[in-house]
């Protein structure tokens, strides 16, 4: 280490000489000498040795911040998952900060810090449910070829989702009952998510017409209305009435819609798609590139 030359102003100088040339005595252990040594030792410390340590200390700040952010996101995801489970059984109105704190073993303030209010929590649950619905129903079904095979896949995945939710409930349907006459942000979020799903179904119907699988004069909105009506009936009979034949009746209802509007080319494509689905390991023409399938949809 390079020693710095001490500044003279730092050294404790002895007092001026007294009478007859007798000056102040400089004993090795005196306060005067201890002060001088202390200043000199401090002056020999290289300033670069101090400044080199600063970046290392500063570099830990972003890492700690990233870890804190990741932990916060994981905590929020865990809270949302618990909230989704509560809402499925108790409805969106059954959600509360206190009930969620009990389920997650967190404090009310901890839950409140992630959502701020009960209304924000309800909206977050609606969006989370919609994201899961899209992943399980929409993105799985659009791997099928355009036309009637894809439209059937969308409906069958929807039916499968309802069959899973028989014991828990569909937030779209229960939310419509809870907020049908209650304007506000939660109702707006529900309406927006359901309309997005209806738009996706309507687009699939129009694509089936463009492929020549449905009659050109077929009313897309009427087909959508009847398909949604089948889902509502299925949910009612399977969940409320516990009717054992509800799933089969929903399939028969879709077959009647297809018979009413499908063209010979559409029926042939539909039969081919069902044969391919029945044969395991047979890929769909559109399934090779999932991202491309999402763009084409």
TrEMBL record:
<feature type="region of interest" description="Disordered">
    <location>
        <begin position="275"/>
        <end position="297"/>
    </location>
</feature>
<keyword id="KW-0804">Transcription</keyword>
<keyword id="KW-0805">Transcription regulation</keyword>
<dbReference type="InterPro" id="IPR036271">
    <property type="entry name" value="Tet_transcr_reg_TetR-rel_C_sf"/>
</dbReference>
<dbReference type="InterPro" id="IPR011075">
    <property type="entry name" value="TetR_C"/>
</dbReference>
<dbReference type="GO" id="GO:0003677">
    <property type="term" value="F:DNA binding"/>
</dbReference>
<dbReference type="InterPro" id="IPR001647">
    <property type="entry name" value="HTH_TetR"/>
</dbReference>
<dbReference type="Pfam" id="PF16925">
    <property type="entry name" value="TetR_C_13"/>
</dbReference>
<protein>
    <submittedName>
        <fullName>TetR family regulatory protein</fullName>
    </submittedName>
</protein>
<dbReference type="InterPro" id="IPR009057">
    <property type="entry name" value="Homeodomain-like_sf"/>
</dbReference>
<keyword id="KW-0238">DNA-binding</keyword>
<dbReference type="Pfam" id="PF00440">
    <property type="entry name" value="TetR_N"/>
</dbReference>
<feature type="compositionally biased region" description="Low complexity">
    <location>
        <begin position="277"/>
        <end position="291"/>
    </location>
</feature>
